[in-house]
Design a protein that fits this description.
Strand order of the largest sheet: 3-2-5-6
Structural class: alpha+beta
Helix content: 25-40%
Number of strands: 11
Number of helices: 9
Radius of gyration: 41 Å
Length: about 300
Amino acid sequence: MFSLLKKEVVQTMMQSYPGIDPDISVWKGQEIVEFQEDLLSRVNGQLSEKWFYTHMKASNAKLPRIDVLNLLSRYAGYINWHDFRYKNSHIKLNDIPVSGNSRKTLSILVRIPLLFIVVMTLILIILKLINTQNYKFTFIDSDTGGPILNNIIHAELLMGDQSPANYLSDNKGDLTVRTNKGRINMIVKAPYYITDTIRISLRKFSNDVKVSLRPDYYALMISYFSQSDVSSWEKRREQLEAILSKDAIIYQFPDKNAGNSMALYNKQEFIDKITMPSSGLRHIEILDCRYIDGKIAILRFRIKRDIE
C-alpha cells in the first residue's frame, strides 16, 4: 500500500516537474530538494533528506509514522492516509500504525455498521414473512350476489415487470393466492361472465376476499337457445344476428370424454345450426367470448355430453 502511495507522490511531483524521473528510488540531490520544496508549497509539510533515503528510496517493510503517512496522502490529493486506503480499495487494518486503543476503536467502527446491516436485513425478512399471507378469493355474481360454483375460473395475477402468475379455481369456485402485497391486479376469466381486470386492496387481518363478476348475457342467451325448444326461430335468428359480429369466428371444441374433433363455423353457419333442432348443436356450454365493438367476435364452446 505504501508503494502505491509513493507512485501517487511521484505523479503529483510530475505536475510541477514534468521531467523528473518516474522512479522515486533513483531520486537524489536536486530531485529531493525539489520534492521538499513542492511538499512545503502544497501541504506546508517538511521531510528531511535522511528520512527520504530511509523510507522513499529504500524498500522498507515498516511503515512510516501515521502523521507522515497523512502528510504524504494529503500531498497526493487525499484527506489522509485512511482516505487514501479506502479510495484505493486495499484496506487492511493491520497495516495501519495505530495504538491498541485506536485499533479497538477502528474494529468497533467497522463492526457496528455490519451489525446494523445484519439486523435490518433480518427485520425486513421477518416483516416480509409476517406480511405474506394466503388469501381466499370467492367469486360472486354481481346480479344475484350468490357464489359462482365453477371449477374453471381462471385468474391471471399481474406481477409488474415479472411474468403473470396463473391460478385456477377449485370445484367450489374459490382460489387461493399467497402474497405480501397490499394491492393486486388480476384478470379474471369465467364462462358466462365478462372477462375483466380487477384491482383489489388486501387487508392483513381479513383473508377472505369476495370478487364480483358481471354476467355475460350474450353467452347466456346462446346457451339458453341451445337448451330450449325453438318455437320462434325467426326471432331467435334476428337476436343472434344482432349479437354476433359480421366476421365472427366460432370454435366448437371437442368434448373431453368424446373423440370428436374441433369444428369451425362462421356467423351464418352457426346461426343455421343452432336454430335447427336436428343439427346436433344442442346443450351448448360456452367456454369463452371475445368482443369487438360490443359484439361477439370470437366464441368458443363445446357440447355437454353429461346431460341426463
